[in-house]
Amino acid sequence: MSDDARVRHRVGTGLGLLLALVLGAVLLSAFPEDDGGEGACPARTVRSWSADERLTSEFARYGDDASRTDDWTGGDGTHSVRLPDGRVLWLFSDTYLGPVYGPPNPVGESYAWRDTTAPLVRNSAVVMRDGRLESTLPAPLFADPAPGSWRWPVAARVEPRRPGSADLVLRVLLWVRTAGQAPWIYGVPTATEVATLSLPDLRVESTARILDQGSVADPSRRVLFGTTLVEEDGWTYVFGGDDRRAVSRPASLAYAARVPEGGLADPAAWEYFDGEEWAAGVRPRAVLGDGRRTGVGSAFSVVRDGRTYVLFTMAAGGSGLTTVTSYWACSPTGPWHGPTRDFSPALPDGQVAAYNPQTHPELSGRGRLVLSYDVNWLETTGAAANLSRNVALYRPRFVTLRLAAPR
Q1: For residue range 96-125, what is the model confidence (pLDDT) as tens digits?
Q2: Contact at 8 Å (CB) between 89 and 54?
């Protein structure tokens, strides 16, 4: 080999080695830690899923039961929390009460139905014991804060009444929304509140306003917290989102806050992630989403699988009406990786949409994760009539997921 050839060979080998090192660094940054080893944070995606007919049927059974006329017959929101005595409390936003009839319904279809004059309240709570729904608390559970405004309950947890206290209470995050004009047909985001309920009788003791968003001029940039929460090492990490999808953007942005255990009802205890650190009284910055290809729906859910955080949301873009996708991270603040594998759960016939995927860790175990999704009529025109004609259109449905490393 000539001297020139040897030089070219050495230079080529050096460039190849440099390229390999750069690619290796990129791969390591994309997948922070290996699947094994102490402190590992493995990548996670949905390996498989199947319909959970038992849970879906239980809500159908309870909703169709005509023995009472003041209980839940349908609703959305679908958050849950396990109480110290083993009961599970299910929290719903807009809720239908009253009797259910049929089938057949008045137009001869083979669907159970409710009368179009059935009461609709802004929130409700249903008690489950040993896997069976047994009663609806007096509804609405959370009174309207003012005329033209209402409260939607979201995530909840049992925690000490104050840090270090032995007295346990139930804390429920609330979204305050106010009636508005299109595109705010589901209300203008207004504030995040926290309600304190006594245990075991579930009496509402007080409500504290945590983050008022009235001063944010653009409603699509107002952030409401509480769509989901995760407990870890003495902290409650509370996630929230904005309403950019209401103004026809493909995706909304996700935000994160944290509160020491026992402090959810204390506004001064809340810290928000500002893009660099946690601090009180700062404007939160998004931890996930570019508003186009990546991002979240107005409601999403986060759960921990080992040391990995997994976020479930409706997909960005047009498929967001039928398709659930996920992201994963090693920290509540990210970086979040994804979207990963999508799946499209079953929907009833008609112009319907899926939304609000929520995980239920208290019902999960043995490598399986329970997730619910809400179903609603797609078009606002005639929605109330269609939901009454077929009561199954406004009840949660459930799937069981198994997570694994991406292939």
Answers
A1: 999 999 899 988 999 999 998 999 999 999
A2: no
284 preceded by cis ω (within 30°)?
no
Q: How far is CA 193 from the centre of its chain?
A: 17
Report pLDDT for 320: 72
| Cα–Cα distance measured from residue 81 to residue 170, given in angstroms and rounded to the nearest whole number | 9
Nearest alpha-carbon partner for 72 in 12, 153, 15, 138: 138
Whether 178 has a pLDDT exceeding 60, the answer reads yes
- Nearest-angstrom CA–CA distance, 151 and 92: 11
Q: How many CB atoms lie within 10 A of CB 57?
A: 11
Map out the domains of the chain as residue ranges.
41-404
Which of 361, 376, 377, 402 has the alpha carbon at shortest distance from 82?
361
Task: Please report the DSSP string for 151-201 in residue order.
Answer: EEEEEEEEEESSTT-S-EEEEEEEEEEE---TT-TT-EEEEEEEEEE-TTT
| Ranges assigned E (strand) in 200-243 | 204-212, 224-232, 235-241
Under CATH, which architecture does the 41-404 domain have? 5 Propeller (2.115)
The SS3 of residue 344 is coil
